Amino acid sequence: MKQDTILTHFGYDTKSGVGAMAVPIYGTTAFDFGSATTAANRFALAELGPIYSRLTNPTLDVLEARFAELEGGAAAITTASGQAAIFFAVANLAEAGDNIIVAKKIYGGATTLLTHTIKRFGIKAKLFDSDNADELENLIDEKTKAIFFESLSNPQIAIPNIEKIVQVAKKHRVATIVDNTVATPILFSPFKHGIDISVYSATKYIGGQGNTMGGIIVSSKGLNTLLKNNPRYAHFNEPDESYHGLVYASLPEFFDINTLRIRLALMRDIGATLSPNSAFLLIQGLETLSLRVQKHCQNAQKIAEFLSTHKRVKSVNYPGLKGDKFYQNAQKYLKDGLSSGLISFDVGDKELATNIINKTKLFKIVVNIGDSKSLITHPASTTHSQLSEAELNTIGIGGGVIRLSVGIEDVSDLIDDLAQALEA
Ligand SMILES: *Cc1c(COP(=O)(O)O)cnc(C)c1O
Fold first, then answer.
1. How many CA atoms lie within 13 A of 110 on its CB side?
2. What are the pLDDT digits (tens) for 336-349?
3. Confidence at residue 389, expressed as pLDDT on a 0 to 100 scale
């Protein structure tokens, strides 16, 4: 099946119930096993089927299967938010005493989670410059459990040297985790580039209408091989005391042991489960994902071109512009060079940036991205305000920077709105 067909059909059989065309919402917390033997078999993984909706639910199953297929991955697990997806992806590989290597240019919430919150769990983050990844190899030691970066970083719209990151990771047999939220599987295919795990805030382009929180983690097909018999990941190769001595690495190859362990251990104990109602909305979003992403990109390209010639704009970050620092990487990694719906631009100082933001009418002042409606934000005082001045400067988010999440409206209306705001 090709991508657009997977988005509309995969993982759901209309003949499985009463013929409902839309995927049914299984609004149930638990499932009748019918017999005590079936109940025991399900817990022992001898028979696969639902147990309790904190672990699995048939509506979530469709979303997970569809998403894994979309990416060409082995399996997926959904979570209550993108932050939960990032936390689970990392916590499944690392424990107290370990370290992870994290790109400097990532989403603000991911930075605080990975550099501050999990430090209190004993997992240390080492930061690297993902634009060139020159220092990456020197940061790896035997306690390094993951390398985390974004395929298109929010809000710098930077595209890392993915080839180099993957090459270094493979050499040391360390798992790579990419946050592919901004690119989406439509623009960037993580596993075709050798990445091991992808994570998403489904809240953004997947849902696409700004109405649902959600997260997704996907394993590549090669991930079992990386985890099995790899001393870095001893916990997959030794009995799990919390699951009556289960050795994940000894399970049949059919099981993707990364998402399985997230489900059986982390989701069981922490419980950041997606609700079936949210899964339903995200499934609706997936049906139009490819159409929307193309329109977001076309609109953003035209707006970036408009901004780059405007006298009040000092600089524009958009990899679809020929002069952009990441233009070559966009051509190399992103589908048809389409460069996402995000643009950031610098007007020089905070006061002017604030005035421009306040004067826009169609662009709403919102700290979200990926909505079908256009959004405008001042990252330094909002999404990234918990970072220090020094942190902000090293990652290029000064007071004059404005971020746009370009929607799917008529682009001439959006340009008119920005033009009048910039006349301030
Ligand atoms: C929004 C976002 C997140 C966090 O996702 P939530 O669904 O808000 O928890 C993570 N990464 C990126 C790139 C994001 O834009």
1. 31
2. 999 999 999 999 99
3. 81
Q: Which amino acid does the sequence have at 329?
A: N
- The pLDDT score that the predictor gives to residue 424 is 63
What is the distance between the alpha carbons of residues 393 and 391, in angstroms, rounded to a whole number? Answer: 6
Mean pLDDT of 242-255: 95
State residue 396's pLDDT score.
81
CA distances from 345 to 315, 352, 379 (A): 6, 12, 11
Ligand 1 near 92 CB (within 6 A): no
Say how many Å lie between the CA of residue 204 and the centre of ligand 1: 7
Each residue of 269-313: pLDDT tens digit?
A: 999 999 999 999 999 999 999 999 999 999 999 999 999 999 999
Q: At what angle do helices 58-71 and 276-287 cross, to 10 degrees?
A: 40
Q: Using one digit for the tens of pLDDT, what is the confidence trace for 20-59?
A: 999 999 999 999 999 999 999 999 999 999 999 999 999 9
Q: Dump pLDDT digits (tens) for 158-175.
A: 999 999 999 999 999 999
Q: Of 150, 148, 178, 185, nearest to 67 (Cα)?
A: 185
Q: Are 169 and 101 in contact (CB under 8 A)?
A: no
Give the DSSP letter of residue 161: -
What strands lie across the sheet with 364-365, from one edge to the other?
315-317, 342-346, 401-405, 375-377, 364-365
Q: Is the shortest distance between the CB of 111 and ligand 1 below 6 Å?
A: no
Question: What is the spatial distance between Cα 233 and Cα 92, in angstroms, rounded to a whole number?
Answer: 10
pLDDT at 392 > cutoff 90:
no
What is the best residue among 117, 151, 204, 216 to mutate for testing ligand 1's pocket, by most ligand atoms within 8 Å of CB?
A: 204
Q: Hey, CA dihedral for 293, 299, 300, 301, is it positive or negative?
A: positive
Query: Does 403 contact ligand 1 (Cβ within 6 A)?
Result: no
CA 201 to ligand 1 center in whole angstroms: 5
Residues 6+ apart with CB under 8 A from 5: none
Atom of ligand 1 nearest to the CA of 215: 7
CA 289 to chain CA mean position, Å? 15
Answer whether 213 contacts ligand 1 (Cβ < 6 A): yes
